[in-house]
Design a protein that fits this description.
Layout: E1 2-3, E2 6-7, H1 15-20, H2 23-33, H3 38-45, H4 49-63, H5 68-86, E3 95-107, H6 114-129, E4 134-137, E5 142-147, H7 156-173, E6 181-193, E7 199-206, H8 207-218, E8 223-226, H9 228-237, E9 239-240, E10 249-250, E11 258-259, H10 272-286, E12 291-296, H11 303-313, E13 318-323, E14 331-334, E15 340-342, E16 357-361, H12 371-383, E17 387-392, E18 403-407, H13 413-426, H14 433-443, H15 447-456, H16 461-472, H17 478-485, H18 492-499, H19 503-515, E19 519-521, E20 527-529, H20 532-541
Parallel strand pairs: 6-8, 12-17, 12-18, 13-16, 16-17
Antiparallel strand pairs: 1-7, 2-4, 3-5, 3-6, 4-5, 6-7, 8-10, 9-11, 13-14, 14-15, 19-20
Helix pairs in contact: 2-4, 2-5, 3-4, 6-7, 10-11, 13-14, 13-15, 14-15, 17-20, 18-19
């Protein structure tokens, strides 16, 4: 079934601001988004570190921002607009792609009044707009919100719950809460996409849409049902609580469905050195020598697992806080009590006794305007003799002086093999050397990928969603990447001849992918992917006709 509808996303024009950026500043902006340090940027561009710093300062001034996170947030949409409109490449507005999606369908009784239906559609459209969602106003008494088409994130299910909570609140105020029925499904959509990302507003087809509608129709009034794909995302991507079946759940349970950061539980391997360093810092804090440590690593590297192990090993008062995605970017949750509070009321989440350890996980979800206050709070706690561990994906250079860093890189093959063998054994799957080697090669040292591939034996929706989320955040040339993944060429010249596009423009697209760490180049100019799963995901992303 093909769906068409009005996108709820209000795009940023940004043309004037984007035009002010020089080509060098655009290249540096792409590298900032990829988490590159000044030394790495200098090496990639063949310029001095001092020159890089000058470009970064100039970039901040043009974008009117104070740090790298704000520059990326403000600048990448502008860069994507510039890429499409001024790159010189064909826009390929009808490029068909497979996309991960989460679909929320909400229905009213068949005899609902037109004004009530309009109210439902208005709430879905308004709140979907704030979550990069596509809103479909269905005929009759229902509406759908589709997340992941415009831009995928690993927490699209959390967004769906936030939208449904807003719908419930609206109807609860009018006494109509128990008339709502909702269904949530997750799966793959085929959509007409722009070359540099974003739905074109044309064709979209997904079995998840009809599945979500069916779940909503089957749910009892005042209840919600989750499909199998949605339940799998919950288990894999850190959202609670666990849902075992498609049975009805009352809408009153919505407050329990929050981001936890806890993925499937497997024994931690290959992080012994990092854990030892953190435990040493904890022992020093017990003697009154507090400090702030930033634990850095990409998605799936085991940051949350390491944080929980450290909290479990603390003999004194310890608190684990988790920054929540979405909404205003300034909410935290106490992992032990479940209490949620705004960042401005952080003290309410801390124990009355002075803690020895405070861990703030998923700090990358904290909005840029709170960073300075967060660091000031962390430093004050450290002055009081507390070990403060901040865990997140990328920090750039915004941390300032006096904060130690521990970066979680990829596991070596031996550690990955131990993790894979344990996961295979738990699933009752063969643990022979060949099976283990195959999974290890595909996982390429990322613990989350290793366990997901071991559990399922291949590409899964959670893995595909995480890879797409990373790619969507980079604003790269999807046509180029999909062609390389499908083996339609291995260098810029071959694709330039095939597509009759300027080699210089294609080379700039390739350079951005190289700077972002998605591609790598051999001395003879051949392009390949830095991670096997990137190639597999992009090959799968390219639907027929792409």
């Amino acid at each position: 079934m093909t769906e068409t509808g009005t996108s709820a996303v209000s795009g940023l024009s940004g043309k004037a601001a984007a035009a002010k950026l020089t080509q060098r500043q655009k290249d540096i902006l792409a590298m900032l988004e990829a988490g590159k340090a000044n030394k790495e940027i200098a090496s990639a561009l063949g310029i001095g570190i001092g020159t890089v710093k000058q470009h970064v300062v100039a970039l901040f001034k043009k974008l009117k921002v104070r740090n790298r996170t704000m520059a990326v947030t403000q600048g990448m949409p502008l860069l994507r607009t510039r890429q499409v409109e001024g790159h010189g490449l064909k826009s390929d507005s009808g490029l068909l792609q497979r996309r991960p999606c989460v679909v929320l369908s909400v229905a009213l009784p068949p005899d609902a009044a037109p004004a009530t239906i309009a109210r439902l559609h208005g709430v879905l459209a308004a709140h979907g707009s704030g979550h990069d969602a596509v809103f479909l106003a269905r005929r009759g008494n229902a509406g759908d919100v589709i997340l992941g088409i415009q831009r995928a994130t690993e927490y699209d299910l959390v967004k769906a719950m936030q939208i449904l909570r807003a719908v419930r609140q609206e109807f609860r105020a009018g006494g109509d809460e128990l008339s709502l029925r909702a269904g949530v499904a997750a799966g793959i959509a085929v959509a007409s996409m722009g070359r540099f990302g974003g739905w074109t507003g044309e064709a979209m087809a997904s079995g998840a849409i009809s599945a979500a509608r069916s779940l909503a129709d089957q749910a009892a009034p005042g209840c919600i049902r989750f499909g199998a794909g949605a339940r799998e995302l919950m288990a894999s991507c850190g959202m609670g609580p666990s849902v075992e079946s498609e049975g009805d759940l009352g809408l009153a349970c919505l407050d329990e469905f929050v981001w936890t950061g806890e993925r499937r539980r497997f024994n931690m391997v290959g992080r012994e050195q990092e854990l030892a360093s953190l435990r040493l810092a904890l022992r020093n804090a017990e003697r009154g020598a507090g400090r702030v440590v930033y634990l850095e690593g990409e998605t799936g590297m085991g940051k949350s697992r390491l944080c929980r192990r450290l909290v479990d090993s603390c003999s004194g008062p310890a608190v684990l806080l988790c920054c929540l995605p979405g909404e205003n970017g300034g909410r935290l949750r106490n992992a032990a009590t479940g209490q949620v509070s705004d960042f401005a009321e952080l003290d309410s989440l801390l124990p009355q006794r002075k803690p020895r350890l405070v861990v703030v996980d998923d700090l990358h979800f904290l909005a840029a305007q709170y960073w300075e206050d967060a660091l000031a709070c962390a430093r004050q706690l450290a002055t009081d003799g507390v070990l403060v561990v901040l865990a997140g994906r990328r920090s750039g250079e915004m941390l300032g002086e006096g904060i130690a860093r521990i970066r979680l890189g990829r596991l070596d093959d031996a550690a990955t093999a131990r993790l894979v063998a344990a996961a295979l054994k738990l699933q009752g799957r063969p643990t022979d050397a060949e099976t283990v080697r195959t999974v290890v090669a595909a996982a390429s040292g990322v613990p989350f990928f290793a366990t997901e591939l071991a559990v399922h034996g291949g590409m899964t929706l959670p893995v595909f969603a995480i890879v797409c989320a990373r790619l969507d955040g980079l604003g790269l040339d999807h046509r180029l990447l999909i062609a390389l993944a499908k083996g339609n060429g291995n260098n810029v010249e071959s694709l330039s001849n095939l597509w009759r596009e300027p080699a210089g423009d294609l080379q700039r697209s390739a350079d951005r992918a190289l700077a972002a760490g998605v591609l790598r180049s051999t001395p003879n100019g051949k392009l390949s992917f830095s991670h096997p799963l990137l190639r597999l995901a992009l090959e799968f992303m390219g639907a027929e006709g792409a």
